[in-house]
Design brief:
single chain, 216 residues, globular
Length: 216
């Protein structure tokens, strides 16, 4: 029995080792929405500062004086209640806008109003009290504003998502959208809880440390 010797070179196949793929996280619509609202509030604050600096409207000045007086001259309970009312106005507005199919274009309005007021108030404090006023803002107001405004941006994102789902269902674009009011309320409750804790701590600082600035 003859043996057939193959002179062909044998090919040795190395096991294929998959290259590590770089996980590039895609930017979601939610991230774009939050970035948009962040840009909106920054522009609103800057616009409020420039407007007050240019015109110094008497009505806005009186509103800012009353706002500062409520933060500095009242008891802890009164300061806490006043700060909660101020924050709730924007939260409730954004919450109900999210339950409407027209909430997508209108959700930015409370953010613009709050940003503009922050700008007005910041310019007022600086014009009236100089560097002492700026220090007051940095220590006793801006930390709370940053936290509550960030929470407001997240709540606005939730409202836009909910409003988009409602719109898709009404226009039959996507009837499979899962509209969960319960989940919507839970997320808002968490954000509201964060704000209440922040306001509580800030109110305590205002009645203990705020009087030392003597801005009145």
């Amino acid at each position: 029995m003859t043996k057939v010797i193959s002179l062909r070179k044998r090919k040795f196949y190395k096991p294929h080792i998959p290259k590590k793929t770089i996980n590039r996280s895609r930017i979601s619509n939610s991230d774009i929405t939050k970035a948009f609202f962040l840009l909106i509030i920054i522009l609103s604050v800057l616009s409020g500062c420039l407007f007050y600096k240019s015109y110094e409207n008497d009505f806005i000045t009186n509103v800012c004086k009353d706002f500062l007086g409520n933060l500095q001259q009242n008891s802890f309970i009164e300061v806490f209640k006043f700060s909660c009312k101020f924050d709730l106005i924007f939260f409730i507005a954004i919450f109900f806008l999210g339950t409407s199919f027209i909430g997508i274009p209108l959700t930015a309005i409370p953010i613009i109003i709050k940003g503009a007021f922050i700008g007005f108030f910041s310019s007022f404090v600086y014009c009236e009290y100089g560097l002492k006023g700026i220090l007051f803002l940095l220590v006793l107001l801006y930390p709370m504003v940053i936290i509550t405004t960030t929470s407001q941006i997240y709540s606005a994102n939730e409202s836009v998502c909910m409003s988009r789902k409602i719109m898709n269902v009404l226009t039959n674009k996507n009837t499979a959208d899962d509209i969960s009011i319960k989940l919507y309320i839970i997320r808002y409750s968490i954000l509201m809880g964060i704000n209440l804790i922040t306001i509580l701590v800030n109110s305590l600082l205002l009645v203990t440390v705020g009087t030392k600035f003597n801005l009145q």
